[in-house]
């Protein structure tokens, strides 16, 4: 192929500062997930396309426009996963996890894929860390999940506003949908082209549109909160009560619906005012396990957009000190033994493969931001020592390899 090879649009490499910030976000999430009692599950990147069409909803933008779908040699339709919940539900059922204990708390991390316009913090291959709780209907679980979201953001030093709403259940959703659809018919001339098409297929999504004309049109639309059955109303009340007791701040957004069809009752987003987008989002999906052929199982979860959080996290820098081992002359055997000893003791050691005098070697040490130079020449070998130079202070001394601090 002529010309320089490049990655496809929307697919990016992670190196240097970006990688360090990625690892920072990922490690904080994993550590807190573990503290909250979640166990890791590793899910496949490829699933049958039907899994997402059934769970996310055929009328959603993700399924209609954004999934990477292909057929295998036997003509079966496969998809690169656009989100993690559907795969986690499939795994929960397929592996009969429901038969092992009363409830399960799982977490995952990995790449997701959506064919959408690349922009800052949003790529066609992006990464999410997420958690799912299966088998708990109590609103206490909703509140704990939101506390976990709050802890992640606080640990990373990221300001965000928690937005909260309830989408009700089967018993109350139908009446609300009819009322909303009737209202949307009356303002149809003010809807954008996308929402005009949405109003019959997925009317709740019109409430979530960011186009200003649509926002004005739905400002007086019926609110789900006014249609909640008594059980959903009580569930929502208790979630808010627990959050106040836990000290988790939130604001109600009665137009918050999320973009996926499977949500019920509690939905939430941690929104960055700086980016104007959701950083962490999720909610309940109490019917999805049953709809996939499993036993009736209440469930809830959330996903963290790692690239989005990276935009708001400072580069943590390299934590461990770097030792550059510089051999002069035919001293490789001794030098490699010194390097092995230091690595065995947990040090990060780079052996210089360059040739040249001490000045050039120290210039190289500066370029790779080494903290110490461990110099080994024939004199050092004879005496069984090394010369250790602190590249930050300039201090230099001779000592035995096992004495290196």
TrEMBL record:
One of its GO terms (biological process) is histidyl-tRNA aminoacylation. Its EC number is 6.1.1.21. Residues 1-327 form the Aminoacyl-transfer RNA synthetases class-II family profile domain. InterPro entries: aa-tRNA-synth_II (IPR006195), aa-tRNA-synth_II/BPL/LPL (IPR045864), Anticodon-bd (IPR004154), Anticodon-bd_dom_sf (IPR036621), His-tRNA-ligase (IPR015807), HisRS-like_core (IPR041715), HisRS/HisZ (IPR004516), HisRS_anticodon (IPR033656). Its main location: cytoplasm. Gene3D superfamilies: Anticodon-binding domain, Bira Bifunctional Protein, Domain 2. It is an enzyme of class 6 (ligase). It is found in: Cytoplasm. Keywords: Aminoacyl-tRNA synthetase, ATP-binding, Cytoplasm, Ligase, Nucleotide-binding, Protein biosynthesis. CDD domains: HisRS-like_core, HisRS_anticodon. L-histidine binds at residues 83-85, 114, 128, 132, 258, 262-263. It catalyses: tRNA(His) + L-histidine + ATP = L-histidyl-tRNA(His) + AMP + diphosphate + H(+). GO terms for cellular component: cytoplasm. One of its GO terms (molecular function) is ATP binding. Homodimer. Belongs to the class-II aminoacyl-tRNA synthetase family. This is Histidine--tRNA ligase. It comes from Aquifex aeolicus.
